């Protein structure tokens, strides 16, 4: 086998392992596509096409017009919540494109990531989600009994979900069992003390179950134009949400038979005491979610801070100024900006901080109120469910806008010319040659150094090895990277390859 073909297989193997690893751990389609292109472009490959669907990554390379395309297709495994592995794939990508890690070592490292043991054992994962559920109940104004019940219920449904997953039971049934378990615990709390707001237990558990779904990523892909992947993720989210609905409705039948009131209580008013509880709850949500999703220890304080900031903005703005949909959109916008800045500064996946900031914004109470209303007044229940969907779109739109804006600002302050996490973007043509902004067109950081930017928003061309830019007077390099000039009667690269 020729040496260049051997290297081509090696580059594709690395790119495919990284792309599939990111997709399986919840990365958006735009980030998967951009990261794969960073790997291939830093390896010197042009005319590479990347397609990302719900559970597949397709990479194709066309050497020239007369060559046969070299294509690989690989399916992603079941989606997991393991941000330690996501961070590992990001580290491998950054080390490879910066020249710190040779190709063969990067391949071995990427191959080893899925086989590594989880960062935290199952009891610690269960404890993390239990703390998250208890902190959510404090965010909604729970007393001691409800707090203990929400903590217990969140831990039980997490353990049950892990057990069913290891038994290869479809996630739909795990979601249904979790919803029924949450209502069952709330009914028990109502029987012990009818004067407490037992519905907070159900709302907290619903948010614990929904936070791990691909709902935010689905809407994000839809907002940015990646409709194929968005459609698959939305259908997955819909089916798993239907599972929660089935479980909760089953629990409601039990509550009605026992005569227990599990209606939703009013939101917490704004006061110094409630703000103090929001601070404690925000920190607990972030820490609990981080431990439960295997976030590396160095990132835990930051994800807790982002969760606190998001929850505080949403609580104060919705209580004093605007409706909840606008309040959560503003909080999501700030979260998106902070997540990009922290990801670039800490060399960590942006998704880690995005998910931490989303936790206090999930409309769990509206979803539950809608489920209650569907049993009594269909129009009222449907309105609440529609409002929950409206908030979900607002969250995703705010996150996308915040990340897009931060992606424009962060390069001015970046310590390295190589971006750590690609910015999200609309779909782009991957077969055309990219143009580098060089010379007078390039932007400069505060220290005066040149910042090399791509012609698209994804940042894949910033992945090129710095050694390629040492001699910008080398004409053959510039000719290879610059796109062909538009001339009358001459077709572009994309037209020739179509």
Secondary-structure blueprint of this entry?
Blueprint: H1 3-24, H2 29-42, E1 48-52, E2 56-61, E3 70-75, H3 83-97, H4 103-112, H5 122-139, H6 144-166, H7 171-192, H8 199-211, H9 215-224, H10 227-258, H11 272-292, H12 300-320, H13 324-346, H14 350-358, H15 364-376, H16 378-409, E4 443-444, E5 450-451, H17 475-481, H18 493-497
Helix pairs in contact: 1-2, 1-4, 3-4, 5-6, 5-8, 5-11, 6-7, 6-8, 7-8, 7-10, 8-15, 9-10, 9-16, 11-12, 12-13, 12-14, 13-14, 13-16, 15-16
Domain Threonine/Serine exporter ThrE: 287-403
Family: Belongs to the ThrE exporter (TC 2.A.79) family.
Region (Disordered): 439-460, 478-498
Q: Key terms for this structure?
A:
498 residues; mainly alpha; 3-stranded antiparallel beta sheet; two-stranded antiparallel ribbon; 4% strand; elongated; disordered C terminus; cell membrane; ThrE_Dicarb/AminoAcid_Exp; transmembrane; transmembrane helix
């Amino acid at each position: 086998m020729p040496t260049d073909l051997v290297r081509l297989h090696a580059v594709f193997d690395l790119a495919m392992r990284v792309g599939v690893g990111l997709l399986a751990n919840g990365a958006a389609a735009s980030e998967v596509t951009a990261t794969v292109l960073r790997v291939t472009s830093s390896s010197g490959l042009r005319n590479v096409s990347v397609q990302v669907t719900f559970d597949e990554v397709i990479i194709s390379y066309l050497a020239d017009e007369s060559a046969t395309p070299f294509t690989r297709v690989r399916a992603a495994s079941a989606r997991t919540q393991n941000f330690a592995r996501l961070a590992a794939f990001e580290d491998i990508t950054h080390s490879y494109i910066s020249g710190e890690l040779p190709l063969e070592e990067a391949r071995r490292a990427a191959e080893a990531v899925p086989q590594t043991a989880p960062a935290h054992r199952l009891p610690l994962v269960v404890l993390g989600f239990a703390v998250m559920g208890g902190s959510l109940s404090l965010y909604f104004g729970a007393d001691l009994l409800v707090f203990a019940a929400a903590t217990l219920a969140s831990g039980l449904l997490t353990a049950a979900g892990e057990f069913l997953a290891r038994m290869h039971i479809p996630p739909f049934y795990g979601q249904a069992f979790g919803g029924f378990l949450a209502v069952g615990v709330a009914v028990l709390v109502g029987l012990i003390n009818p004067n407490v707001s037992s519905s907070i237990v159900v709302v907290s558990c619903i948010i614990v179950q929904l936070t791990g779904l691909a709902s935010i990523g689905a809407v994000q892909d839809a907002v940015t134009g990646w409709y194929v992947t968005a459609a698959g993720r939305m259908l997955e989210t819909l089916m798993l949400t239907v599972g929660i609905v089935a479980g909760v409705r089953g629990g409601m039948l039990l509550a009605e038979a026992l005569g227990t009131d599990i209606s939703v209580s009013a939101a917490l008013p704004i006061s110094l005491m409630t703000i103090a509880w929001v601070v404690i709850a925000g920190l607990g949500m972030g820490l609990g979610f981080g431990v439960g999703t295997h976030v590396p220890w160095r990132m835990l304080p930051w994800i807790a801070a982002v969760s606190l900031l998001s929850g505080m903005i949403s609580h104060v703005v919705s209580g004093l100024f605007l409706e909840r949909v606008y309040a959560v959109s503003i909080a999501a916008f700030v979260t998106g900006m902070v997540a990009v800045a922290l990801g670039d500064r800490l060399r960590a996946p942006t998704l880690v901080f995005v998910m931490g900031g989303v936790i206090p914004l999930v409309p769990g109470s509206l979803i539950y109120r809608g489920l209650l209303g569907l049993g009594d007044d269909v129009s009222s229940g449907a309105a609440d469910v529609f409002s929950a969907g409206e908030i979900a779109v607002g969250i995703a739109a705010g996150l996308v806008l915040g990340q897009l804006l931060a992606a424009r600002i962060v390069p001015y302050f970046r310590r390295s010319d190589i971006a750590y996490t690609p910015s999200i973007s609309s779909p782009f043509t991957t077969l055309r040659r990219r143009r580098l902004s060089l010379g007078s067109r390039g932007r400069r950081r505060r220290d005066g150094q040149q910042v090399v930017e791509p012609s698209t928003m994804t940042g894949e061309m910033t992945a090129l090895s710095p050694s390629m830019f040492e001699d910008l007077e080398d004409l053959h390099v510039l000719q290879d990277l610059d796109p062909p000039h538009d001339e009358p009667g001459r077709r572009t690269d994309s037209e020739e390859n179509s």
